[in-house]
Amino acid sequence: MIKTDFLIMPLHPDEMTSAEQEPDPDSPAADDLTYHSWDTVDHHHFDHNLSDSRWADCLFSSETKCIALIDLAARFLPTRFSRPIEVSVLWTDDLTIAELNQQFRSKSGATNILSFPSGDRSALNEGRLFMGDLVLGFDTVMSEAKVAGIAEQDHTAHLILHGLLHLAGFDHILDDEAAEMEKLESYLLTEIGIADPYQDAIYTPVKARDTNS
Known about the structure:
By secondary structure, this protein is of the alpha/beta class. It has a single domain, classed as Collagenase (Catalytic Domain), CATH 3.40.390. Strands 1, 2, 3, 4, 5 and 6 form a 6-stranded mixed β-sheet that branches.
């Protein structure tokens, strides 16, 4: 089972280096490979900043599965995704994510993904709800995929889904929360043809699963 980390504090642009911030749309940086975006069929928008160029191949090769998962999750959880959303994603290295892990969680070392939910869930950009920020560390993610014997693209898609669920309010601090989140992830992943990463988790539909209580 992979271990993922969740942050409860929003990552403010002032707390990021210039290389990690979204470029001005009118600047040359917006046209290079350090910036990319996804727009899903259901009009959800993901902005991507690549501070580590090693992510480029995986970002593009995992795009189709990630977009499918984003739409599927939003359709499955309509009360948590009541309108199109926007998410910012930083694709970085282990050194940077370790620094963020220490700064915001007081934990040493790198991790695979950090989630920073938006402090203002009413904030809108072009009619979309800004959910927050995700940060992925290249070396840890690639190492996990290799050890688990799974495709890098599939592991990356799983982490994007996992991070998105955190932004939507899911957590895995308590055992029952972790079990529920794992079952949901397993179901959504297998729906698009990605093998269940938890293997022995069994999805059981629960009436009124999608609640905010």
